Each structure stands twice: as structure tokens, then as C-alpha cells.
From TrEMBL, chain A:
Name under which the protein is recorded: Cytochrome c oxidase subunit 2
Residues annotated as transmembrane: 53-72, 93-111, 138-161, 181-201
Region entry Disordered, spans: 388-410
Chain intervals with Low complexity compositional bias: 391-400
Domain spans labelled Cytochrome oxidase subunit II transmembrane region profile: 113-208
Signal peptide stretch: 1-29
Pfam family, one: COX2
UniProtKB/TrEMBL annotation, chain B:
Family, as annotated: Belongs to the heme-copper respiratory oxidase family.
Source species: Pedobacter rhodius
Alphabetical keyword list: Electron transport, Heme, Iron, Membrane, Metal-binding, Respiratory chain, Transmembrane, Transmembrane helix, Transport
Pfam families: COX1 (PF00115)
Keyword Transmembrane belongs to the record: yes
UniProt membrane topology term: Multi-pass membrane protein
Subcellular localization: Membrane
PANTHER family: CYTOCHROME C OXIDASE SUBUNIT 1
Record-given protein name: Cbb3-type cytochrome c oxidase subunit I
Segments forming domain Cytochrome oxidase subunit I profile: 24-550
Membrane-spanning ranges: 41-63, 90-112, 133-155, 186-206, 226-252, 285-305, 317-338, 350-375, 387-409, 421-447, 459-482, 502-529
Amino acid sequence: MSLRKFITNKTTAALAVLLTVFANTSVFAQDAAAGAAAAPKVDMGEVYKSVIFYILVFLAICLFIAIVGKSIRVYELSREAQGKPVGINWNRVHASLFALFLVLGLYGVYWEYTVHGAMLLPDAASIHGKRIDDMFNLTLIITTIVFVVTHILLFGFSYVYKYSAKRKAYYYPHNNLIEKIWTIVPALVLTVLVLMGFLTWRSIFYKVDDPKNMPIQIEMTSEQFKWTIRYPGTDGVVGHKNYKLITASNTLGIDFKDLKSRDDQMADEMVIPVGKPIKLILTSKDVIHSFYMPHFRVQLNTVPGMQTIFEFTPTITTAEMQQKTNDPNFKYLFYCAKICGSGHYNMQKVVRVVSMEEYKTWLAEQKTYLNDDLRKQFNLPVAPAPVNSGTDSAATDSAAVKTNQMALNK
Amino acid sequence: MSTIALHDEHNHDHADHGHHKETLISKYIFSMDHKMIAKQFLITGIIMAVIAMGLSILFRIQLAWPDKNFPFLETFLGKWAEGGRIKSDFYLALVTIHGTIMVFFVLTAGLSGTFSNLLIPLQIGARDMASPFLNMLSYWFFFTACVVMMGSFFIQTGPASGGWTVYPPLSIIETAIPGSGLGMTMWLISMILFVASSLMGGINYVSTILNMRTKGMDLWKMPLTIWAFFLTAILGILSFPVLVAGVVLMIFDRSFGTSFYLSDIVMGTNILPNEGGSPILWQHLFWFLGHPEVYIVIMPALGISSEVISVNSRKPIFGYHAMVYSLIGITVLSFIVWGHHMFVTGMNPLLGGVFMITTLIIAVPSAVKTFNYLATLWRGNIRFTPAMLFAIGLVSFFISGGLTGIFLGNASLDINLHDTYFVVAHFHLVMGSAAIFGMLAGVYHWYPKMFGRMMNAKLGYLHFWLTFIAAYLVFFPLHFLGLDGVPRRYYAFTEFEFMKKWLTVNVFVTWAAIMAALAQVAFLFNFFYSIYKGKKAPQNPWESNTLEWTAPVEHLHGNWPGEIPTVYRWPYDYSKPGHDADFIPQTVPFSQTMSSNLPHDFEGNEEAEKIQQDWEIANPVTENKG
């Protein structure tokens, strides 16, 4: 591989690249109109200059590498001609580089853990979230130990057992005892993790409702690219809906023939009382989205054609979290985590965790979905007694009162 | 390509000299020789990898500088990057096609296709594949699949953009995203062609390995590469058809108005008539392939690295049987873990618990493999050839990515990590980086076998170190984005206050990715330059035991002139005490290595043991051996 040929080769390649760049201003099939409209916007001369600049920089680096490569070759040939041992012991070079990589790498990992590790989500703001965090920390400790030890062994062995003509490797095809040990030990560790994970998982998804502390139902409906929140109203139950009833004025397709629907309320943000179980009913109108609320360690997909349910209990109010994180602008959020189209990256709503009193006042101010237009559509009397204003929203607390409320609504 | 071929066909007489029966068209294009097909797979795979890497640089630029204009992007992409900024739709198309190409075309066809084709006949001692014609078809189906997939960049609505998992309804409803129009149809057609190609390949690999091993090559004398390819092919044969079934149903849903995956859907106020289907069904069908698929990707890489590490440590692979059993374990278990991709899809939580158990069990054979690699290095005599460097890199990535898998395999932890950058970081380490490193190790190691020439080692060193460092710089920080709750496939981080602190990390990651991409120039130059100008390869450049190095350097149809060599021993007799050289090829009978034979070499053959004992009594020099 002669230097001259190398360079000529590079240059031809580079010329080819440049030619392609200039020749094909429109590589892909698309309307000529779009291309024409976009043309006058930028002065392409500058652009080409900067592109050429970067290509030249890259070529210069290539040239530099080629020169270094050649000098190494010349050095090695001259050593050979003088009858001295080989110029560079590459095995030693790589062994040392691995050792260096180990040291720098471990420092890098430490740096990442401490610097980026400090930029993460605050402590979980829900009961089950704490269990998840505990599991996470346990897993992190175990995996970090394994990670560090195996890497020390991997790069350490690479350093220590680098090639030497004087030595012969140790013929050691197998050792059943050692193999059994390192099959059983990971199996045991994983059994512990599996058991803990399984129990945590069960505690999250298999909840038995406490009749004295019934969860508050909130329904979330996702569509491209927004969320619609539905509170159950005074009866504490989110009413039926049917996608076939969806119209411009009834965007959720709520079936107002169902009495439980008539008091359902709309909201711009999700406001929930601290310490109270919340039962999220997740549905989707169009494609699959994912309801993701990382501060509470909550995520579940919203799937068209079926309901998914996630129950959690918030433990820290927004105000408390603002203090904890030292950030007066802190907000809980929920957003979409499943690819759903061009607006996927901006599909969010604010969550406010407040005290029970605040929640009740806020809830009383929310409007119902049922309005006069919809009443006409569903052949309901247009001006009935106001459904939600007078009723006591505290009734949502207890299942016993629920039936009374329903009776009232009739 | 085809124009050259046609041209050549007409000038048959001129092109003919040099090879007697072969025309250019039968030698280079519709070749039925496994070595040529392997090269076709490899070069197509490399081209696809470069394209997919280019796509990734495009979306990395968007992530790093979401507010900046890059007018040169408009030069290339036209309306998809109007004003020099990539559009949100096109961003999703980029990630989708990047993923599809990398997973299927590069790491499945490019890796398995190349090395199974090259090594199976050469390492088991066969003249060619069981069905050379099917083998040729396998390549051309793959090639057509690539063309169709890339073709989707040249249509009005752009390529498929619902993510590489193409979850319906997003991928079915055209109004949901432009890419779900013709682009998605092309994706599906391409995928059917690809699966057909994979199946033809897989059936061929399995039947060749089972039926065409040379004399003496029993299953337990096969190199681990062959075991890995064998089990990979079985995985592919059993799982790919399920994907086709899913794809066919999706084609029906898209084009013929059925409702397998659709129900209760309203686009805006347009109520779709579909009823009774379930989008979750697709996820089950997809991941029933999709999870074995990631093992289809990693197992050949593990097989290659087993061979490379053993050869270059000058030591037998530690725990050969354990390595095979762990591969078998991974193969079997990989069929019952697909649900861990679906913990938060609303699948029955009971299933979540079950899939968590099976998923974490699969970590055990993986751990065994890792420890065995480490034990192989221990007290070795390590030669850092470029292939060896990449194999060590693979082990490192396999450890790092495997450990993060323990988080994701745990259903409870997955709740908060699902579909975040943690997942992206995890699979890019364990499936992306590790498998690519396995592939590169294979290329550097068997290049002399493929092209009869050596690659430049120093460019290989440069290539390794730049890629190794850059890959960690790219993927390690991404874990932390995920832990902060940043979802994947976000076009820009600008809409969320809390994500803004990660913008600097994104800039850093993008520069590291650009560095990694440029480092590949060293490889590409080395690869293509050495085909013509590389040093001529010696017969056995790495002093390796396996059968392929006994075949002549100059390729010939049928691999060996005269009889196929007979195999007498396992492929890992490196540095055997009592033998003068530090390797004993598989073709050397025990009668020629009396001084180094060990009792277990004879597998209980009493006659042979007796001969050995008699010899040892007659030659007392051997008393110092273990």
C-alpha cells in the first residue's frame, strides 16, 4: 500500500462524493414545486462552503493517519533491516490500552453515576413507586458490582495475559465444579430478584378495594395528540361511552342515556388529592398511546377497543415536591410514551397533587360534559335541575353514599 | 449490476477466458457457490449498514440541534427537511427504517447470511450447501427486500414511520401518519421477501449441518460457530413464519377491510367500521418472532466470538459443553419470553408475572457464557488481532447490555422504563454494539478465507479503538435520559422543561455518533482496498484448528481438491501440553500426537486407550503432563 496510491485513492473518492453532492440537488422523488419554493430561501454558496470545509478537515485527518501509518511502517522496516526485534509490540500496546480503558472507563462510570445520576427523577411520589425504587436500587447495586468485577476481569486478563513468545497458554478445557458454581450463583441471585419483582408486580396490579377508602375513578382518553380527562362526577362512577356516538360536540362518545354519565365532569389538568387511591381508566380513540407519569412510576398503554386500568396512591403534593426538589416551577406531568405519530413528542398534561380540601373545591368548579346541545341530541329535557352544583362532592369518598346520589340523579 | 451482467452475456466469448465453465453471471451474480453467496450477503449487509448508520446520523443531528437549520439536509432530503430542518414525520420514518435495516438486513441477513454461508460448509467439511439453488434464491430474495425497502424513500408519502415494530393501528390507518400509506405497504412486502429469504437460508443451514458433515465430524466435534448458526437457523425457522402470518393479516387489514387488529377506532370524528379486532394480537405475533429475533442476532455473534477468543487466546474455549448447552438453553427459552416487551400494554398482569420469570431465567445461560469467555482469557496467551479486539469488545458490550436487561426484564421496573431511552441504550449495547462487534470480528478473522488476502491490521486497530470508545460514549449516557423519564422516539426535547437539561448530553452523544460513523471509513477503506491490494493470505493465518483453514486459499468450487479431510478431534486443542506447536488442527489424528493425548480424548474407546498406555510406557518422557 503505497502512500501515493493511498492519497490518490482518497482524493478520487472525495471527488466522487463532492460530485454527488453537487450533481444531485434533488435526490428523492417529490414535487418539483416544493423544491422550487424552497430554493430561494438560503444562499447555498455558504452552505456548500461549510460542507466542503468539513470534508476537507476529514480528508486532512485521513491524510494525517496515512502519514502516521506510513511512518510506523518505515520504522518497522528499518528495525527489520537492522536485524533488531520488531519495532512496535502491538500486543503490549493493546494490553496497555485495555488497562487504560479500564481505569478511565471505571472513572467515567463513576462520573456518570454521580453527575448524570444526580439529574434523574426525584423520589417516587406514590406508594407503589417507593417499592419500585427499592427494587431498582437493589438491582442497581447487584448489577453494578457484577459490571465492575467482570470488567476488571475482562480487561485485567487482557492486560496480564498478553502474548509472549516465551509462554504457552494453560490448557484448561473445563472444570465442572466452577461451571456449576457460576450457573447456580446467578440463578440464585436472579431468583431473589424474580421473587421480589413478582411480589411488587402483584401488589401493583392485584389490588383489593378497601370499601372504606374507595379509589377515585378518572378516565383518560388519548387521541392524536392530546388527552381528554373525565372525572366521574358525584356518583363516583365514570359512565358508559361508545365510540359510535362520537361527534364534533361529543368528542368522547359519552352515552348520556346512562345515568352515570350525566354528571361526568371535564378537566384541563389532572388534579388528585394526596393519600387517596386513584383508579385510572385508560382508553384510546385512535391509535395506541401510552399514559406515562414517571414521577409516580405509572405507565400503561391506552389501547383502542379496550380499557386498561392502573391504580396508584399519590403521597407527595406538588407543593411539597417543589420544596423537595428546590424548584418552584416543578410540575408533575403525564405524557405519551408510545410512538403515535408526528405530534408524539408533545402530548402532555399537568398533574396537580393537592390536599383533599383543595381537591374538593377544585372539583366543584369543573363543568359537566352534558350541555344543552347534547341534551337535545339525546332527547333529554333541556333545563333540568343543576346536577353537580348543589351536590356534595365529598360523597365520592364512600360507596354507601354513591347509591343515594344515583337515586338523586334520577 | 444487471446491466453489466447482460452486457457480459452478449460478449460471452471475451469474458470467458480464465474460468472454464463459469460465466461472469454465474460466478458473481447468480452464483450458487456458498462462498460467493456469503460475500454477496456481506457486501449487501455492509452497504445497508452504512445507509442505516447514515440515517441515524441524520436523526442524531435533529436531536442535538433541534433549533438549528442545516440547509445541506434540504439538498439531500428536499421537502422532508424544508429549510434544513427534518420534519417530525420524517424523523419517525428515519428511526423506523434505521431500526428495520439494522435488525433485519444487517444483523440478521448480513451476519447470519454471511457467516453461515461461508463457514457451515467449510467448517463441517462439505462441498457446498445442501441446496445451492435455494441458497442463491435466498440471497436474491434478500437483495430484492433491500431494494423494496430503500425504494420507499423515493415515494411521495415516504417510508413506513410507525417504528420498526409497526404497531397497529398507527401502521394501518393512512390518516394517522403519512408513512402508513404506500411506504408501509412496501415495508410489508419487503418483510415477506426477507422472511422467505431467511427461511430458505435457515432450512439450508440446518439440513447441511445435519446431513453433510465430513467423516469424523460428530456433533460434539463441531466448532461453536456451527452450533450457534445451527441453533440460530432453528430459531429462525420456527419464529419467522409467525411474523409472516402477522404480516399477512396486516395486509388484509390495510387493503381488504378486515379487522384483525382494529376495533373501536375514531380518527377525529371519522368512525371506522372495524370491529372486534385487537391491536394487542399484532404485538403477540410480532414479538413471538421479535424476541427470538434478538437472539437470532446475537447468537451468531457469540459463536464467532467463541471461536475468535479461543484461537487468539491460544487456549481451548472454557466449558465447550456448557457453551453449547447455554446456547440450547437460550434457544428454547427465547420462545417463551416475548411478553416482556408487553408488560405495560394492558396484557393480563398474570402473564406479566410469568414472562418476568422466564425472562430473568434466560440471564443464567447468558451469564454462563460470559464467565466462560473470561475463563478462556485467563492464563491465555492473547494475540490482539483486530478480530480478537472486536471479540473482547463484544464481551464487554454483552456484559453491559445484558445487565441493563435485568432491569427491563423485571416487570415492576419496566413500568417506569418502558419505551424510554433506557431501552434504547440497553438494546443498542447488547444487540447493536455487541452483535455488530461480533460481525466485525468475523469479518477480520475470516477475511483471508473470503478474499484470499489479509486486511491491514493497523487500520483495524484504529477502527476498533475509535468504534469501541465511541459506542460507549454514545450509549452509556442514554441510560440516564431513560431513568429521568425521557421517552424514546421523541422528535425534539424542546416541549418539556425537564428535558432541556439533556440537550447538552444529546449534543455530546451526536458528536460521539459522528465519530463512530467516521471511524467506519477506516473499515470500509480497509475492506474494499484489501480485496484488490491486500497482502496475500497464507494458508492458516491465525494458526487455527478448524477445517476451513485446510481448504486452499484460492477458492474452488467444492472447497477441497480431492477428498474432503477427515476430522479426528475437537476444534479447540490449543496449547496442549506435550505437543510442540500450540495448535493441533482437527484433521490431525491422535496417532500423530501421542505425546499430547489425554485420557478423555478417546471418549472411552478401550482399544485406543490401550494403545496410548503402551506408547506411554515405551516413551517415559510424557510423565510430566497433566
